[in-house]
Amino acid sequence: MVGTKTVTFNKPLLKGSLKVPGDKSISHRAIMLGSIAEGRTAIKGFLDGEDCLRTIEIFKHLGVSIERNGTDVEIYSPGMGNWITPTEELYAGNSGTTARLMLGILSGSSVTSTLTGDASLSKRPMKRVTTPLQSMGASVSGEEGGDLLPLSIVGSKLKGIDYHMPVASAQVKSAILFAGLAAEGETVVRETAVSRDHTERMLKQFGARLEQVGNTVRIQGGQTLTGTDVIVPGDISSAAFFMAAAAMIEGSEVEFSDVGLNPTRTGILQVLRQMGAEVEILEKHGETGEPYGVVKVSHARLEGTEISGEIIPTLIDELPIIALMATQATGKTIIKDAAELRVKETDRIAAVTLELTKLGAKVEATEDGMIIEGPTALSGGELKSYGDHRIGMMAAIAALVSEDAIHIEDPSCIAISYPNFFDHLSALVSTCVEE
Q1: What digits encode the pLDDT tens for the residues 199-210?
Q2: pLDDT higher than 60, residue 268
Q3: Domains and CATH numbers, the chain
């Protein structure tokens, strides 16, 4: 049953420090590479959200031993070549990352499997992944010529390819690199712009040899990986919601500890600065692997800006909250080159435009983005999450700057990436009233 949550604020002020949950993208990849590799892998800071737990369950069905104690995970894997054929379908739930990356992994394995998802995921396009995989020799079949789940995958002997990606996508790139790890010869992926590089960094951490030059990544097939220790930093995409809140609300100042600072993910910090917010990086760690540190965001008068081009892949998941922030900025904010938003958990361009318009915002949807006029006083109202965690969190943060209460339909989806979101919101904003 879909529930509703009412969030009300009275002259809110955000103060304090926050440690957000582990990075979702990195958590997925740590489980995947720990299961591909031989031996023991220990993960600290794992995100125990619904999406990442789906990834764990899939590998358990493949015969990998995985034990979880909160945010600590221990994996003992016999290696990819010794997985067992699953006796039931592999269910990815609502996780596009799980589904798309598993397609690359399973294609080069020795098992036959069927990959499924929930109703929402079953509508999301997979051909962007299955097309290059099939050119490598993958045996993938299913609905709409292999574009929609459920998909059947027969593990096959693959051959490396030289693939020019039409759109920068970390999920597609990662699926091809995972397949390339098991393929004969060299696999080359060329991007139009550099997308998040967590897969490349972690492959190296597990002992893989690969080469990165500009927008091109090369990996040799036939490599065996070895289990290792992985530290997952805080998810900057989750932190972005509170960063935007601190930037919007006069007198606010929030410090974020151990948050990921991978340069392919920090576009949100650049946009905050472009719009006038005060952003300080107080500490930086992680010289090898994933960089992380302490970031402080403080309120300042915000100005509209243009967000386009190469920065888009570095903040694609943050665009819903950026759109909300733009409603409180002076002037026009233009978001473009972000057509990828239309094939996320929902059509985020349509969803953000409709929901913010309900509150009185001036938002115009375009084919590949949005145009937002501000500043605008927002009223309260009933907002839908569409079962999309990013839209749900945007709706909750909107309550900080709306005149009346926000009623969020299906807030439970927020647990996909941020299980304790409302606890953290209440801790930072002492005037929060929830029902």
Answers
A1: 999 999 999 999
A2: yes
A3: 4-22+233-434 (3.65.10.10), 24-231 (3.65.10.10)
